[in-house]
Specification:
CATH architecture: Alpha-Beta Barrel
Largest sheet: 8 strands, parallel
Structural class: alpha/beta
Number of helices: 12
CATH superfamily: Aldolase class I
Order of helices and strands: EHEHEHEHEHHEHEHEHHHH
Radius of gyration: 18 Å
CATH topology: TIM Barrel
Shape: globular
Strand order of the largest sheet: 7-6-5-4-3-2-1-8
CATH class: Alpha Beta
Number of strands: 8
Helix content: 40-55%
Distance between the termini: 36 Å
């Protein structure tokens, strides 16, 4: 599954002033990131504000992304939650899954399951999924960590579990995953700011937020690192360090939407409550960091 190495981009969902999905801006974002050289698209991830999208909106967002992509790149679709039975029903019933190449499925949030509970949750999904699975470990949002041991267990037992998006920020854990994973299993960084050092310990790519706004530079950095050209990659990493911080200072995707708006890629800078746009001061800081 090397087609999911490199840079995947967790696409935003633009909204218009009435709060509806801005399909024209979404199409512009899709063309922008493809033109910038990303390797695959990720729909309905955290950055898409999927938690505030209705089922019909999720269907339409995927349809717009797939239509605009027109087969140019693989598409990963987010399907997850904290009710295993509901996820299994979605895997059976969601019509838009036929347009995907893989599923990104997040750790169950709020419930705080044990490692055995996490294993059984992902086992049930793997046994029903029509598409390969990318696990998504983001304990800062989910209040539970998928341990390296659980990741390795799942990767070893289920051929259709092909990768993990590791967003714990824990280098010891990432190292343990890299050391214990099967050869055909991908370790992907879930954080832009640590993607470069993650590659140095065996990661094979990243699912990125920054690549929405600056795909060219970010893709160049990741591809150079994967080719072993770390000196060149470090130069870009250092240039982007202020942007990494600014984009997440008041939460994601508020920061990256501000960047996209500042660059004229999306028409309006709106989010759905409980999220809100960044402060004026941070917007100006992001503008400066983009220069």
């Amino acid at each position: 599954m090397k087609k999911f190495s490199g840079v995947g981009v967790a696409l935003v969902t633009p909204f218009d002033e009435s709060g509806r999905v801005d399909e024209n801006s979404l199409r512009t974002v899709v063309d922008h990131v493809i033109g910038g050289g990303v390797d695959y698209l990720v729909a309905l991830g955290t950055t898409s504000e999927v938690a505030t999208l209705s089922r019909s909106e999720r269907e339409r967002v995927v349809a717009v992304i797939v239509e605009q992509n027109a087969g140019r790149l693989p598409v990963v679709i987010g399907v997850g939650g904290n009710n295993t039975a509901s996820i299994l029903e979605e895997l059976r019933a969601l019509p838009y899954l036929r347009h995907g190449d893989a599923i990104l499925t997040v750790a169950p949030y709020y419930n705080k399951p044990s490692q055995q509970g996490l294993y059984l949750h992902f086992k049930a999904i793997a046994e029903r999924s029509p598409l390969p699975l990318i696990l998504y470990n983001v304990p800062g949002r989910c209040a539970v960590n998928i341990s390296a041991e659980t990741v390795s267990r799942l990767a070893s037992e289920f051929e259709n579990i092909i990768a993990v998006k590791e967003a714990s920020g824990n280098f010891e854990q990432a190292t343990a995953i890299a050391a214990g994973k099967p050869d055909n299993f991908l370790l992907l960084s879930g954080d832009d700011a640590v993607a470069l050092p993650f590659i140095s310990i065996g990661a094979e790519g990243v699912i990125s937020v920054v690549a929405n706004a600056l795909p060219d530079e970010f893709v160049s950095m990741i591809h150079q690192a994967l080719d072993g050209e770390f000196e060149e990659a470090r130069e870009i990493h250092f240039r982007l360090r202020h942007l990494y911080k600014a984009l997440f200072e008041e939460g994601n995707p508020a920061g990256v939407k501000a960047a996209l708006h500042a660059r004229g890629i999306i028409e309006e800078n709106y989010l759905r409550l409980p999220l809100c746009p960044v402060s004026d001061a941070l917007y100006r800081e992001i503008q400066t960091a983009l220069l």
